[in-house]
Amino acid sequence: MANSTAAMLVIGDEILSGRTRDANMHYLAQELTKHGIELKEARVVSDDRDAIIAAVRALSDAYDHVFTSGGIGPTHDDITAECIAAAFGLPIGVRDDARALLQAHYDATGLELNEARLRMARIPEGASLIDNPVSAAPGFTLRNVHVMAGVPAIFEAMVAGVLARVARGQPLLSQSLRIQRGEGEIAGPLAKLAEDFPDLSIGCYPFQKDGPFGANVVIRGTDAARLDAAVTRLAAEVAE
Amino acid sequence: MANSTAAMLVIGDEILSGRTRDANMHYLAQELTKHGIELKEARVVSDDRDAIIAAVRALSDAYDHVFTSGGIGPTHDDITAECIAAAFGLPIGVRDDARALLQAHYDATGLELNEARLRMARIPEGASLIDNPVSAAPGFTLRNVHVMAGVPAIFEAMVAGVLARVARGQPLLSQSLRIQRGEGEIAGPLAKLAEDFPDLSIGCYPFQKDGPFGANVVIRGTDAARLDAAVTRLAAEVAE
Fold first, then answer.
1. Using the 8-state DSSP alphabet, how is residue B17 labeled?
2. B187 and A76 in contact by Cβ < 8 A?
3. Do B127 and B162 meet the contact criterion of CB atoms below 8 Å apart?
4. Which residues in chain B are contacts of A184 at CB distance < 8 A?
5. What is the ipTM of this complex?
6. Contacts of residue A239, Cβ cutoff 8 Å, sequence gap at least 6
7. Domain A173-238 falls in which CATH fold?
8. Nearest-by-Cβ selection for A184 from B74, B185, B194
9. CATH number of A5-163
10. CA of A127, closest CA in chain B: separation in Å?
């Protein structure tokens, strides 16, 4: 059986303006690869209702899972939860279990659960909560969309919570071969290798160090024996 | 007149597998903001023909400019140029001026301009070349799509080349206010501020340092006087 597919949706003006460099995409990509889920696409959109709704619908239709980050805090620009509800035509409101989580957190820290903070307990109908061990305000899973915070420490904790519930696929294995020749010299053998091993993904990443160009060839797949066969053949072919 | 809009398309399996952390999106976001062009969306797709073509068409239709990175090297997984041509239904072939650039580069470095390397001289009909001062193989602009290399040093040089030709908009200005109170405490005044200054974008980015939570409020816009007015009002409102 083929592995599950996934997309990521990063929500936030601060990424697109260049103020903040996103860190969550790279983290999620690595975690999904380990878990045997194939990340096929990622998108970044601004804090714009129409843009978020359109992206959620498109990605939710096209892939098995959608992971979102950002826009679930207490301020006016945090509109992710209501956009997810709107994308599926579902109502959203403050939910008792989410409110209780926030109440306990603010009681413990001596802060008030005011109206703005209570917005973080608004959960679309039918969603299940994602635990937030850092600052209590939960994420949620609605259908195949997992809605998580943008703050990296919280995002990472939430990803762990979601992946614990999601079926594990065959982990994607990879082997690398570092070759001290330019990409242009090994492109022929690589193309032939890709043809003969259609079940593997073969990437070539050039580098330049101390003058001459070289390339790292990375071969990925789920069958260790096939990976070994491909790497062995390539090493023999490109040996100088 | 409103500023131009742009999207970015990052092409490469290595980003989605988590092997490589993309650096070009953050760089481009900063450069476009300085240049007065609004980056509205970014996408990452794999080295897959259908995915690249669909994304190029969607983004080219929706925005004034599309900037792509990745997939223009000499190996079998470098399929960006032919996908761009296909997206617009245009032919692609080796072009004399692009071949001459490569020939001069390889003559100077004592390497052979072989068949694989010659692929980098394939340019869709009607495109204009983007200079590559690092390794000669050019990028190109076709209609509103600027096609650039994924290697950051080359990408950055190509962005400079493109932006020198693209009309400058009103630079997006920003002012920040660091507030030592939780987001949830200032959400009310912020929402009212956003209502009263619809021409400005007001973002709130929480942080936690040495215990208490705080937030950086970032106000963005093109009119310096309006920014001053908004920041002054907010500072007075949230003063403890």
1. T
2. yes
3. no
4. 74, 111, 114, 116-117
5. 0.92
6. none
7. Alpha-Beta Plaits (3.30.70)
8. B74
9. 3.40.980.10
10. 24
